[in-house]
Design goal:
The chain is built from no helices and 4 strands. Strand 3 and strand 4 form a beta hairpin. By secondary structure, it is an all-beta fold. It has a 4-stranded antiparallel β-sheet with strand order 1-2-3-4, with no helix packed on it. 0% of the residues lie in helices and 50% in strands.
């Protein structure tokens, strides 16, 4: 789970469901954003 250490213990501020791409966007404190979408039956996540 090291990939998600940068949002560990941060407060979730806003959720966009669905986002403009049809996925899910989670906005955290400190301007951390995590986008999650389904690609070919698998969940893909990306930090912005």
């Amino acid at each position: 789970m090291g990939k998600y250490d940068e949002i560990k213990m941060l407060e979730l501020v806003k959720v966009e469901d669905p986002n403009t791409e049809g996925g899910l966007t989670l906005h955290f404190q400190e301007n951390k954003t995590l986008k999650i979408k389904n690609v070919d039956g698998k969940l893909v996540s990306e930090f912005l």
